[in-house]
DNA sequence: CGGGCAATTGAAGGGAATCAAGGCCGGTGG
DNA sequence: CCACCGGCCTTGATTCCCTTCAATTGCCCG
């Protein structure tokens, strides 16, 4: 089971949610805000490296990331790991586990993470009383689907260099959109092992591929993370046009 | 734009939907059935090979497959193609395009396909008046997400043989669940090029990989399609435990 | 009967995995 | 204070899975 380390409980009222201030997220109606603030049971804070949800568990909770980064992954019996996507502030976690019988992937914290915890039993009430929010849930699921589509294209048809370029450009743009500190350089808090497990490559070859990108001055590998110097250059290598979105979160 | 060939319009009333009879799909309440039968504008029949939806289009429709097979795919500028998933009877098509601004993938018919066409403008009414159906929409999107997750695991971490075995077992089980003719041998109406584009392999290597499976008597390549002889054997090679589902469709 | 598509097979080359080893750095304990 | 250790990054050498190039067959169709 998950190894939590609770550090605190309910803290940030939804009315003062810092994410809400970002252009990136849509505003609630007063009624929705009222509902959501009751939907939220509390907050959960976990350390970097902690398992937030694990494959096979059936008592899944529903969360939204309030701060920090995490990632979703699946594993084969012999230990091979595939990272499916990364979770950043505003992302919903555990929807699959809530709707289906059990989780079919795990979620791990990449940095210290704060989560808003929701009552899964009230989910039906959400659909019944706030169709706009129900619509949002579907929207969020469809958005995740899109990301996975692009990821599949990457793994199936892009070369190692293109794959790496796509991933880094993608992460950079998302990180930028959810950053609370505008203008600040965004640094990705991941190791090369994470990148390798995302791209479906070995760590050795990932390292060599990243070196090529660094040689071209597109990225720079900093201590325990990666700085993106030229996201447009990366997107161009990958043949990727970018995401267009006006997201709608939850919290 | 899409190259349709309409062969007929509204034909099968939702009340007599043949898919509804399958255990695999959940039943509607009378109110839901009533709503859906108005939600459905008509039917569209296209030939094998026709493009049902194409990437970049923004006037997307919303469809459910009534009969036949299709597939979703994305392409890179230079023509490399990645098949994302296959669409079978009961599957919803175009949800992403309906919720977002435009389609980011294309859909093509693999066999002659009949589609139920829905009014996208009534989608809000669906969420507002039939929360159960709204819930289903989210469920469907989450289910697709799961499939993509497993696919991503395949492309990233499984060997060519494992990948092929997984794909064939997966398609077989889905085909079986949506087949109207029980007991009949299910034959997959796809070419090796489709398989190659799904697995992210070249067609030559796909051919050699399928040969290995055929040599082990797990499959047999028939004229213009593939017969599955031992889906459990395939699943075992792939290290795949199967899908558990009680689906909920639409029509 | 020519032509095109799908499947098939051989041969050669390359991209990525694997094996192996070394450097850097922060943490820990004697 | 410094030796030891483990995690992460890096690099060289070798192997092999898969791609690419090329050519043949069989079949359906106009």
Structural overview:
Two copies of one chain form a homodimer. Chain A has 251 residues and is an alpha+beta fold. Chain A has two domains: 14-147, Jelly Rolls (Sandwich), CATH 2.60.120; 158-238, Winged helix-like DNA-binding domain superfamily/Winged helix DNA-binding domain (Arc Repressor Mutant, subunit A, Orthogonal Bundle), CATH 1.10.10.10. The first copy, chain A, contains eight helices and eleven strands. In chain A, the strands form three sheets. The first copy, chain A, has a four-stranded antiparallel beta sheet with strand order 1-8-3-6. A four-stranded antiparallel beta sheet of chain A has the order 2-7-4-5. In chain A, strands 9-11-10 form a three-stranded antiparallel beta sheet. Mean pLDDT of chain A is 90; it is low at 1-8. At the A-B interface, strand 5, helix 2, helix 3, helix 4 and helix 6 of A face strand 5, helix 2, helix 3, helix 4 and helix 6 of B. The structure holds a DNA duplex (30 and 30 nucleotides). Chains A, B: This is CRP-like cAMP-binding protein. Chains A, B: Keywords: DNA-binding, Transcription, Transcription regulation. Chains A, B: Residues 158-232 form the HTH crp-type domain.
